[in-house]
Amino acid sequence: MTTGETATPVAIxxxxxxxxxxxxxxxxxxxxxxxxxxxxxxxxxxDTLDAVLAVPGVRPxxxxxxxxxxxxxxEELHAVLDRTDVVEQRGDSLGERxxxxxxxxxxLHPELPSLQVAxxxxxxxxELLGECARTLLTPGTDAVLGHATDGGWWILGLRDPRxxxxxxxxxxSCDDTGARTxxxxxxxxxxVATVPELTDVDTADEAVEVAALxxxxxxxxSVDALTSALTAGSPA
Length: 236
Description:
With 236 residues, this protein is α/β, with parallel strands linked by helices. The protein has seven helices and seven strands.
């Protein structure tokens, strides 16, 4: 923590999938190979975890699925995950897994609010995450929501993590998931503050767009390597 920063006690949940070739970021293929797509996913996850761990006062919780040993950059991933509380994802639908992740964070860190991000917004800095946490703790705020450019959302914060149960039946991964989530929170009587919109990475164009925002990051280096490989393989 740097001088002047105030610790904001909060559980930050990262919903993550082991970056195994053929199992992550398949919409990047083509132009990426399965190995290249998994490398991008691993870089994005590691950059996200670094940002989370740099938030003053954070209690990091990773809701994880998949085999770590089969992941790209497995050794580095092991080292970072060892600095967090890791819980297994539970539930059939994505909404159920989100609700379970918040419940698990509440069990690990009673009385703390929760912020949940996924592994596909590596441009979400520690500063931005800290600002989201402070917004959540502002008097009169029960929840925060950050919309994504594809119609979903990239961050969800709850003063009471158990209220995530109301999202179990909200359709996820749809072009109106963000609007549906906001409506569900407000229908439950929660006072919701919105935070900046971000692009989450699902396509090659989005990968290039986001990489430009985080020069020097693992993610940017992975996108550069992918771009170079594609250029080298193109016909003259």
